[in-house]
Each structure stands twice: as structure tokens, then as C-alpha cells.
């Protein structure tokens, strides 16, 4: 995300070498953006760092000043328009979401309209007031209520030795496998699942509450549920008050959530970490996804501020990256009983790796959860956690937004002692993998890993290294016909796919209505975890072109 161009290239290069956080950052404070500022971005030619709502590091500001007008400012303006719309919709969406989920659970738990009437007569009406109950489902589970894992066919697992978690590709020869052992009477049965099947389902159920996830992991999948973790998101600074720092207050919310499981309780081969993604009615999540702000993190490169905060960033204005995101959590966090996702999950992994000496780690997430799944291992490598990083077998993300620049994209691979299979799956014109906008030199966001892009009817292809999915910033007008054609095609497919593939692919009215929203905004419907599950199960990935 260097701001240099022309005569400013040398200055930016020298600044990059110093790797000082206070010198390399671009923080856009959307709450301070006015309508006149948006017009200025569109009409005037002035450096982005000269605006009152931008906090830029010294090197960033100097490079921008030498460059003058920065190309791509219309995308910055568009981002701020989106941010204003999301901010205005925050409370309406919050209350609408709560009402919709209450209504859908009320109808579902009572067995439909007829069931509601019958339960009223019997004085057994179910009122879903407890959102933490194991039978309470989020909007995501209402769109796709499937919980069963789909085993691999025997032919696909031929030649794979027992209890192995292999590294390698997905949905092809050499696919990583997770084996589940079941006891049926006197017989020991074994089922094998690709890591893609396990990760896409784990990233889907990560949207649910702790009791729901525990029930699915333990009773449906017959795996071992380790724990559910709801951690603090540093939306603003930590305030320490009182004599000697004895009082502390966190301003933020417990919005970073993840769960951990193993495929069995003893001598596990796989430890899976799954991050919760962008909730449909949570405008704060959507705002984080599209935010263009970034921070220089030394050797890690430039990294999205919102995703760092979600994991435990401590200081935006620190003088160096080690202080901004220290290796150990702040003492004040323990003082008030708050935990940050990075530190909590790192401790859980350390413990699980000691308990399971032969296990490998798999990290996954959908949407915002995919971004955290990409950033978490990179931070482990940044802090020199070699014992953990060397045990990471794979990172699989679905509909993941961009997380950092080209340096960040290659950081984990360059700093892992053993290869990590980083696979990123994108379905059609899903908007989230196309944000934050790639707006060099303002915000030079790049994707990392191997991208498997699914076009229509679950036909996939592996993109070349560094290649973006079509319509990389989403708003290119030449893709309009294709985008709306895809939305109509997906709606039609949803109504009839079950006739060919079976009852597991029959979609209910909630899913159909959600897809219909794609007729207005195609990138929204394509973001559904349901399509990612179907793509993994039904998709065919063409061989990578030389």
C-alpha cells in the first residue's frame, strides 16, 4: 500500500525499509467525513492525506504529497458513501434482524402455522426468547439448516493411510483428509472427509451460538468440541484509570467469536479453528469489511486495521509494530476479565497441541471470519510462534475480504517452516472478496493464497498466482449483465437443484427470498454460505492452466 509514484517512489521505498508503524499508516475516520468531503474526493485533485478525516503516518503523508492527486479516489468516495449508509442502517438493521430471527425461530420451533395454532390450544406454545439455546438458529442457519457432513466416496480416499491429515490441494488427488471413527454395535466404522468439507461446514456453523455449535460438533459430527470463545473487539482504545492502573475499561464489544474442535478427544489428527463471519444484519461487520484503513506492521506489510482490531490490536498510533500488537496480552485485559481473540486462541492451540502431539492445525472462516483466519496465522508467524506455526496444515477461507498488501499476502508462506495449504474459495460475484477495494496507491489491498473461483453451476477453476476473480472491485459496469444473469440463474437453480441432486439440496422459502435479494444486489446473494457448501460438494475444479 505504498503511496509513492513518480518522484515519491524513493521516499516511500526508504520509509518502507524503516518499518516504523507511526510512519506507515492510513486511517480513514468515516465518522468525520462530510458530504462536502465526498464531493471534494470526486471533483478536486488533492492528496488523500490532506483531508481532515485522514490520519496518515509521516512517510505515507510525504509520499502522498509528492504524488499529489491520488488515482482511484472515486472508489474512496464510494467507500465513504457506503460507510454512511451502513452507519445510518445500524440500528434499523439490528432491530429488524432481531425481529426476523425471532419470528423465523418462533415459526420453526412450533412446527409452522398449524403447529402454532395447535400449541396454543395445548398451552405448549414455544417462545424463543433465549438466543443462546441449542435449538435457536441464526439467519444463516435459516438459509441453510444442513448440519450433516458429507463423507468422501471410497474411491476418492484410496491409498490414504489411517488417521492421516495430509497437506495438499482440495477436491483432487492428495486432498487433506479428516477421519471419523464410529462404533456401530460391535463394528468400528470409519468415514473420511476432505478438509474442504469440514472447513466449509465449520465456517457455516460458526455463525451460531455456543450451545448449537457444541451440539452439532459432539452429537451430529461425532467430533470433540473444545470450546467457544467470544472475545473483545477493540473498536477504540483501552482506558486504564485509577491509582497505579488498578481500574480498567474496555470500549468495544464481544463481537469476535470462534470455536475450536478436534476430530476425536484423544490422539487427534486435526485441530480446527473456525471464526465467525459477517452477520447479515450486523452493519458494523459490513463496515469493517469495506473499510480502507491500514497499518504498517513491519515485516508483515500493510494490514487492514479492522481485522487487526478484531484479533486484539492494542495501539493504532504506536511507534512500532511490536508495540501495536505485542506478543503478550496487556495486563489490563486480565484485570477486567477481557480476552482478545488472538491471545485466547493462541493459548488454546498451545494446550491442544500438547494434548495431541500428532495433530495438525486447520484454520477456517467465511466472510469476515475468513479474513481473521488469514490474519491469525500470520500474526503467529510475526510473533515467532514457531511451535504453533509449524503445526498448521491448512488455512481454508470462503468469501474472504482482502486483508493486506502484497507483502502480507506472502508473509505466512515465507515464514512458515513447513508448507501451509492456503486456499481461498470465491463464488461467482460475491461482493465480499472484492472489498476492501484495491485502490493503489491509497490502499493497495491484495489477496493471497490459492484462489478457487466457482463460476456458474459450480464449475470451478484455480486462478493463477496474483490473479483476481473477475470484476475485482465489483462496480465495473461491463460486468452488469453477467452479474444480474448470474443472480437469475442462481434463483432458478435453487428451485430445481434438488430434483437432480437430492433432498439435501432443496431450499426453503427463507433461502429463496434471500436469493431474490440478489436480483437487486447480485453480490449479496452470492455471499451465502449455502453456495459455498454446494460448490465444495458438487463443484468440479478444472486443472490449473500452465
UniProtKB/TrEMBL annotation:
UniProt-listed SUPFAM superfamilies: alpha/beta-Hydrolases
Record-linked Pfam families: Lipase_3
InterPro entries, per the entry: AB_hydrolase_fold, Fungal_lipase-type, OBL-like
Gene3D superfamilies documented for this protein: alpha/beta hydrolase
Species of the source: Oryza glumipatula
GO MF annotations, alphabetized: triacylglycerol lipase activity
Residue ranges occupied by any Fungal lipase-type domain in the UniProt entry: 272-438
GO biological process: lipid metabolic process
Name of this protein: Fungal lipase-type domain-containing protein
Superkingdom assignment: Eukaryota
